[in-house]
Amino acid sequence: MIDVSVLITCFNKEKYLDECVSSVLRQSKEPREIIVVHDECENPMHHAEVTTIMLRKNLGVARARQEAFRYSIGKLILFLDGDDILSPDYLEKMTQRIADGADIVYPDIYFFGDSGKKLSVLTEKVEPALVEKLERLPIPVTCLMKREVYEKVGGFGKWEVLEDLDFWLRAMCNDYTFGKAETLLWYRQEGVKRNAMDLGKKTKIMREIMEQFVIENNTIKQKHA
To answer: Full-prediction pTM beyond 0.85?
Structure first.
């Protein structure tokens, strides 16, 4: 067993939840705990192998993750959406990279579902200069992180979408290090996604997040100069 809390949030993704939970249960290294938060699901499901939290009111993904975190005890934290799947060696490979010195570890991504199939092999090095150049950070929310990272950064922010981008950028501004593990997150793309909002609104949010990142990163540089 490894000291990892796997925190799964579900909002009307019950038809995929068994597959998601099963992918955690079949890991080559067993996590310390699995917590599932039903964010006002229409047909909530209970799993004997996991801790289940039922929310009577829909709080949204960021606050649902916060609820899961509040009840967790692991020294390492992994957030997982209820319709995604982990490769069997996911936790083993992730914790190995943490042991090598990274604070946050990310995988490659295999996209599947309605939009077809695509493998996304991510960069081996994530740093502020790369983010500012690309104006994005293409790593998923399903990263493994030290518990202190979440506590120090202060959890997910106010944004309707791209809350994971905002979180990783704030972690970067706090000098936490990123490492890549040679494993796969199976990321399901099906139906209308939560972030399928008006493109103009989403772009505006992206700009606001990036502008704040640039300001904070430059402030940190000046402090260390």
So the answer is: yes
